[in-house]
Design goal:
Largest interface: A-B, 34 and 33 residues
Structural class of chain B: mainly alpha
Number of strands of chain A: 2
Shape of chain A: globular
Helix content of chain A: over 70%
Shape of chain B: globular
Oligomer: heterodimer
Strand content of chain B: under 5%
Radius of gyration of chain B: 21 Å
Number of strands of chain B: 2
Distance between the termini of chain A: 8 Å
Strand content of chain A: under 5%
Number of helices of chain A: 20
Chain lengths: 524, 467
């Protein structure tokens, strides 16, 4: 099961952190544990480098690995990468060493377990993005909950018990119906293999039920309004590394789920539900922004801004246009980089001031210029300032929105303005406000902190100034998904002016046109 | 058929005889120094005789895939229980006759796995039950244990009477007690009302063992009242006996008959009721009691499906169930002070007091929820797939929603262990005992991640029943 690089890349990405986690159990000394995890993180990034050889013009799924798992039930160990998952995997790999560095001094108790959880998280997250078997996907999807729960529950803030339980209950309860959907797809489609399921067409009634079950799980994970209430609690209480992982990777799983499952497997239901999903997305954008405007806790502010940013992502997805979805994927990546960076910086700020209130962290520009420079950079990226990465993603989504329906575009624009309002307000007070609490002992950025933040800062500008590289890699995959969707809906006889009652009677298409073959082409 | 095929049963019988000799000779050394090893040898023997096939006693006793699979699981469960008990070998209650009764009960269940005739079934069931009736009140001078014993015996007697009454109906209607002969006749209510009613009453005897609604009332009380080690046994191994018989009987039916629908409904009520009741428990053993009521409901998914896949799933799940439950009870026994019942608050700060125990508890609890990558998840996935394929969609939905309910209290175990603060001193648990617990937790994970070989065994057994 070799890939073109002579070793199974995706499996290596999953196994390396797991092996390190096991090794961690036998290690003594906190410093050694941190170093081991850091080295593993760097190794993880190196192992992920071959993925950059992903060929956009090539097969739909590349770096595919297949092995028997449970043949009796048709479960296979099936991994692969495509344009939708490529950047998420790279981002996950990158976050591991940064999280270790970011928590070098922040975490002082139960160091072994902390790094154990970080490693397990990385493994599970990469599994989620690379799995091409439905059961395998679910295994990783749920397996990631436990380390995340522990990250919040053990190393979190004062209300950590409440926040961690809310997080766990919400996300697990949401995904229980996903399991029912998986079982149902096996009965109807005869397999757990995602590429094979993508080829088939399902009756409209089945699609709509499956869509609802899956969308609930994904919408809670994103989180979309009104399922977002676990997010601020979890973000505020989680330790810095937990917040970073939560924002950078976990939230993306929801939107990734929409792209990977809802669009290809239930195309007719997705089209039917699109108006509702778009409305909810816009509600998320506006609501998240408006609430963020009223926060005094920096972490809470950024948590609510996440709700708004993720609203842009889901909006882009349900526009069903190439620019909308490529904007959405780019925005997923950007939000990971930017919000990850912001949470990291707030962690560093908290280490100094031991408060997350804006009022306690005012007027630091004079004393910590380098720190404030980076905070400014990430804040500008967060409000989608031209030249930064988020601008590209957001503008693509907005272009898609205006193309789809002018009113959708107009409804989403205030979200972008709100983002400017709350981020600038934060930046202004923290940088230039009347100094409130600065003590001479507060150092400006240290080398370790520079190393933690610089990769993200470089990415902010790199993607902002040269977005074509990423877009070119993503687009062929999106075009394939959209083409297959259109073809399947046509084969079913779905028309856009059909009332719901008529749609519900639509049977599965007997033959799906040949064009969908390419959506499951695989290459090791 | 040769005598050597019966080696698993014979080995356990020999162990019981040795325990009997030890109980009358009154030696100073605790039998628990050698018993776990003897039980482990029993597991090896049961594993070696997985392939044994044959029939004896005029076709009433059959060795097939199912019986050998369950004999292996029972032997494994017995070995684990003795190993758990060995952790407290200084306790006065764990005398040789206590262990002998445990062994006898397990032996009865092993016989039960091979019985394919209703009267033999009944006899084997009683053999295992009688030892339990004697076991449960054994807890020093504790009144709660006496109460639990009386509850168990009264419930047991009533349900046994029901089962015998049902057996008489089945015999009257079908003129045979051989399962093979019963399988060829019709089991729809309209065609054979007497037999169906009789069979339902007979099934009640096994529902009682499994603690399925409405025969579950004894379960939390008995777990709470009985000694921790006894509870570990009662909660796991007898359920295996019930499952093996139910799997055999369920192969008589086809999906969507009155009987199977009733199984599905009882399963749904059982899991919902069990999970809801467990939400408010403070006593860990009582909580596990309600949890096992819920799990009895989950097993019904496979039995109601009735297909080969369903029966295989039920068998697989019973293995997963005993593994994760024994892991949980192992922690309960290790945490308890002077054999008292631990409450949730006693788990507080377990992380500081014994990190390994906390981790084992976490694995067991998440397995009981059905979180991947544990055996609990894989087993549940098999059950759900089987039930959905046979058209029990509503049951699948009820089951997954129940998972959502159950998270809260299982998570409570982990929450107390990891985030609770406590000033209690560190727990002194021997290294050997911790290794044993770690192996148990590793098994839960291993069966979950690589289920193929075990599932194939179960599937092979089920296809023999349901070609």
């Amino acid at each position: 099961m070799m890939t073109q690089f002579g070793f199974p890349v995706v499996t290596a990405l999953i196994v390396v952190p797991l092996a390190a986690a096991v090794a961690l159990l036998f290690l003594r000394g906190e410093r050694a544990m941190r170093l081991l995890t850091l080295v593993t993180g760097i190794l993880e990034c190196l192992v992920a480098l071959p993925l950059l050889a992903y060929d956009p013009a090539g097969a739909a799924f590349q770096f595919v690995e297949k092995a028997a798992w449970l043949p009796a039930l048709g479960m296979t160990y099936h991994m692969g990468v495509d344009g939708l998952s490529l950047y998420m995997i790279l981002l996950t790999a990158l976050m591991l060493p940064l999280c270790v560095l970011g928590s070098w001094t922040y975490i002082s108790k139960r160091v072994r377990e902390f790094h154990f959880c970080l490693l397990l998280m990385t493994s599970a997250c990469i599994g989620v993005f690379a799995a091409l078997d439905f059961v395998l996907f679910y295994v990783f999807w749920e397996a990631m909950l436990v380390p995340m729960y522990l990250l919040i529950a053990v190393w979190g803030g004062p209300r950590r018990r409440y926040a961690s339980i809310k997080f766990f209950l919400y996300t697990l309860a949401g995904s229980t119906l996903l399991l029912a959907a998986i079982v149902a797809f096996r009965q109807v489609g005869g397999t757990f293999s995602i590429p094979e399921l993508m080829e088939k067409s399902y009756s409209f009634k089945f699609q709509i039920l499956a869509f609802l079950a899956m969308a609930l799980a994904f919408a809670i994970k994103v989180p979309m309004f009104p399922f977002h209430t676990w997010l601020p609690a979890a973000h505020v209480e989680a330790p810095a590394a937990g917040s970073v992982l939560l924002a950078a990777i976990l939230l993306k799983m929801g939107t990734y789920g929409f792209l990977r499952f809802c669009l290809p497997l239930t195309p007719a239901a997705s089209v039917t539900a699109a108006p509702v999903m778009i409305a909810i997305s816009i509600a998320s954008i506006l609501y998240g922004g408006a609430i963020a405007l009223g926060q005094t806790d920096i972490k809470k502010l950024i948590a609510y801004s996440s709700v708004g940013h993720m609203g842009f992502v889901t909006l882009g997805i349900f526009l069903f246009s190439v620019s909308g979805i490529s904007g959405a994927i780019l925005q997923m990546l950007n939000h990971g980089i930017t919000t990850g960076g912001l949470f990291m910086m707030i962690g560093l700020l908290y280490e100094r001031s031991h408060s997350r209130e804006i009022a306690d962290n005012q007027g630091l520009g004079k004393f910590m210029p380098a720190f404030m420079f980076l905070l400014g950079l990430f804040s500008f990226s967060s409000l989608a300032f031209p030249g930064t990465n988020s601008f590209v993603g957001e503008i693509l989504v907005l272009i898609g929105a205006f193309k789809g329906n002018v009113w959708i575009g107009f409804a989403a624009v205030p979200g972008a303005m709100l983002a400017a309002a709350y981020m600038l307000r934060l930046l202004q007070r923290v940088t230039w406000g009347a100094p409130s609490s600065f003590k001479p002992g507060w150092w400006d950025l240290r080398t370790r902190e520079w190393v933690t933040l610089l990769p993200l800062a470089v990415l902010v500008l790199y993607i902002g100034l040269a977005p074509a590289v990423a877009i070119k890699t993503i687009e062929p995959s999106i075009e394939r998904v959209l083409a297959a969707m259109k073809m399947k809906n046509q084969a079913m006889g779905l028309r856009s002016d059909m009332p719901l009652a008529e749609r519900l009677k639509l049977p599965a298409a007997v033959t799906v046109a040949d064009g969908t073959d390419s959506i499951r082409e695989e290459r090791p | 058929m040769t005598i050597s095929m019966l080696l698993p049963e014979l080995w356990l019988l020999a162990t019981i005889c040795a325990l009997f000799v030890a109980s009358i000779s009154g030696g100073k050394r605790s039998v628990l120094t050698w018993l776990p090893w003897a039980a482990v040898a029993g597991v090896v023997i049961a594993a070696l005789s997985l392939g044994a096939r044959g029939e004896t006693l005029y076709g009433a006793y059959r060795l097939d895939g199912l019986s050998q699979f369950f004999k292996l699981v029972i032997a494994l469960g017995f070995a684990v229980v003795t190993a758990i008990a060995a952790g407290k070998r200084d306790s006065k209650d764990l005398s040789p006759d206590y262990c002998m009764l445990l062994g006898l009960s397990a032996w009865g269940l092993m016989l039960l796995a091979s019985c394919v005739e209703l009267i033999t079934l009944y006899l084997a069931l009683e053999l295992s039950s009688y030892s339990l009736y004697a076991l449960i009140p054994l807890r020093g001078q504790d009144r709660r244990a006496a109460e639990a014993g009386i509850k168990y015996i009264l419930f047991g007697a009533a349900v046994t009477a029901l089962a015998l009454f049902g057996l008489s109906y089945v015999m009257a209607a079908k003129h045979t007690t051989y399962l093979a002969a019963l399988a060829t006749s019709s089991w729809s209510l309209s065609e054979a009302p007497l037999a169906v009613i009789g069979m339902l009453l007979f099934l009640a005897g096994f529902f009682y063992k499994l603690a399925l609604f409405p025969f579950h009332f004894w379960c939390p009380d008995v777990y709470q009242g009985a000694k921790n080690e006894t509870a570990a046994y009662v909660a796991t191994i007898p359920k295996l006996g019930a499952v093996v018989v139910l799997v055999r009987l369920a192969s008589l039916f086809t999906p969507h008959m009155e009987v199977t629908n009733l199984l599905a409904v009882l399963g749904a009520i059982s899991m919902t009721g069990g999970n809801l009741a467990a939400l408010v428990q403070r006593d860990v053993k009582r909580l596990l009691g309600y949890s096992s009521v819920a799990h009895a409901g989950y097993i019904m998914l496979g039995l109601a499906a009735g297909s080969a896949a369903g029966l295989a799933a039920a068998s697989f799940y019973s293995l997963a169930y005993i593994l994760m439950n024994l892991a949980c009870f192992y922690v309960v026994c290790a945490v308890s002070v002077d054999g008292e019942n631990p409450t949730l608050d006693d788990l507080d700060g377990l992380y500081h007091r014994s990190p390994a125990l906390a981790m084992i508890l976490a694995v067991a609890a998440f397995a009981l929820v059905g979180l991947p990558p544990t055996a609990g998840f894989t087993g549940k996935l098999f059950l759900l797939t089987a039930a959905w394929d046979q058209g029990y969609q509503w049951l699948v939905i009820v089951a997954v929603l129940n998972t959502a309910i159950s998270i809260y209290y299982y998570l409570g175990l982990v929450r107390h262990a990891y985030t609770g603060e406590s000033t209690a001193p560190a727990l002194a648990v021997s290294r050997g005992s911790l290794v044993f617990g770690g192996v148990l937790a590793a098994l839960v994970l291993l069966v979950g991640m690589l289920p193929a070989s075990v599932y194939d065994l179960a599937a092979q057994a089920a296809t023999q029943l349901h070609p």
